[in-house]
Specification:
The chain is of the alpha/beta class and 195 residues long. The chain has eight helices and five strands. Helix 1 (14-25) crosses helix 8. The longest helix has 23 residues, at 140-162. The termini are close together. Bound molecules: adenosine-5'-diphosphate.
């Protein structure tokens, strides 16, 4: 199995690049944001709980998202590997993920961290809000709250994986194709090493 984390602040392009990467490498895409939004659309109890956090730009509690990822791993026993997008977002989530993967006798091969300036992030998110229908993208206050959460809780996830030498930083500004090529280069190097 080849598992990777696409890491970066909100608006750094994880969703866009994930779509292209899963096609090229045949990985299963696990986006906690997408799973949470489908729970909200289905008006489940989990969705209702999550919505109250998401609407404020706050992270959903760890136990909720860890449970979701655990079920998703179980539901895909045949996957050639997983691309985690928007997860893990806290060190506790990273530790839980490592445990879940080690039970499956596998691990994270690489964390690809997209680097984008804060002003560019805010611009992209508010722009996306005009068409995405995502309520958390329409107000600058919520967008900025998400970036604050990222610095307070999520950026530490990169430090966690840095101790295992798994993090590669990628410039997340430029054309979608340029960024895709840079991501693929790093994946190819790590895949070679894994053989
Ligand atoms: P973005 O990367 O643009 O912020 P996501 O779709 O990844 O968008 O996440 C949207 C919201 O869903 C987050 O602001 C957060 O409230 C919630 N969320 C998604 N993934 C997680 C996670 N792993 N842990 C906690 N909350 C999460």
């Amino acid at each position: 199995m080849f598992n990777l984390i696409l890491f970066g602040p909100p608006g750094s392009g994880k969703g866009t690049q994930s779509e292209n990467l899963i096609k090229k490498y045949g990985l299963k895409h696990l986006s906690t944001g997408d799973i949470l939004r489908s729970e909200i659309a289905g008006q489940t109890a989990l969705g209702l709980e999550a919505k109250s956090f998401m609407d404020k730009g706050q992270l959903v509690p760890d136990e909720v998202v860890i449970g979701m990822i655990s079920s998703a791993l179980e539901a895909n026993p045949e996957a050639a590997g997983f691309l985690f997008d928007g997860f893990p977002r806290t060190t506790a989530q990273a530790e839980a993920l490592d445990k879940l993967l080690s039970l499956k006798k596998t691990e994270i091969a690489v964390v690809l961290a997209l680097e984008v300036s804060e002003e560019e992030l805010v611009k992209r998110l508010l722009n996306r809000g005009k068409t995405s229908g995502r309520s958390d993208d329409t107000s600058e206050e919520i967008v900025r709250a998400r970036i604050v959460e990222y610095h307070a809780k999520t950026s530490a996830v990169a430090d966690y994986y840095r101790q295992f030498d798994k993090v590669e930083s990628i410039k997340g500004e430029g054309s979608v194709d340029e960024i895709f090529d840079a991501l693929c280069k790093q994946i190819d190097v790590r895949m070679e090493e894994a053989i």
